[in-house]
Amino acid sequence: MELSVDVAGTRLPTTLSLPAGPVRGGLVVLHAAEAGHRSHFCYEHLARLLPGAGVAVLRFDRRPRVDGHDVPLADQAADAIAAVDVLRGHVGDVPVGLWGLSQGAWAAPLAAGLRPDLVAFLVLVSGSGVSPAVQMRYGTAEQLRRNGYGDDDLAELGRVRAATEAYLRGELDRATAQAAVDRAAARPWFPLVYLPRALPDQPGTWRDMDFDPVPVFARVSCPVLLFYGTTDAWIPIDDSIAAWRRATAGAADPPTVCRLDGCDHYPTLGEGTSLDSISPQYTAALLSWLDARLPAG
């Protein structure tokens, strides 16, 4: 079923996949940073899998970037809430949750904390428990390590990222930060570290770089399922799990953690990017967890 989610004067194209029989629950899909279209294979997997278990799946295209800047997490959370409202109009009073991949796994708990009356559960894949800046420091350093670069290169990477972050915070002048980028750009590893060759003319362009997810996690009161690929090169997995456990200490239903063998950042085997590479372990764990928390069909 083709629908739309209307947000901030923008109509976001939306696809709703409904069960053939009774509806036990619903799921709204939130996006990874580089996977903003509803046709992404991880989202399509949910739309193919879950209606057979009585779960409706709503996928929508992420709000467009403005002037090349990423969509702020607060806007992504607001869009998620608007999408839940759309889904509820079609499934009625059943539990509706949010599924978020990577960046979407920051936006989903933000939305759940804002509207605990609307969000009944969270399923988060490759969600970071540290800020975007810290996560990128970890992930880019890991790219260098996995490609055989040593301590000197890692040290230079640390310096250039620190200079870039300081400029974006307004703590360092552009000329000094750009000089650090210019030096790093001569290194063979520069294409691996996701830094712009030319810094923006004005600081403040990465609004969420120091977003602290721990207080956000602490406001989540619904059940949470966390998936992490055991070889993920972008997420500090142990630190992220520890952040959730700190934030939810004493919770009656602490987050469920599932480490996916043979998976990296996506829940796929062999770093695949297609439906047939989706991990059977991920599929089975997702179905089992939802089945235990949703009403019988």
From TrEMBL:
EC number of this enzyme: 3.4.-.-
Organism expressing this protein natively: Micromonospora harpali
Superkingdom, taxonomy of origin: Bacteria
GO molecular function: hydrolase activity
InterPro entries, per the entry: AB_hydrolase_Est10, AB_hydrolase_fold
Broad enzyme group: hydrolase
Gene3D superfamilies cross-referenced by the UniProt entry: alpha/beta hydrolase
PANTHER family, alphabetized: ESTERASE ESTD (PTHR43265)
Record's protein name: Alpha/beta hydrolase family protein
Keyword tags: Hydrolase
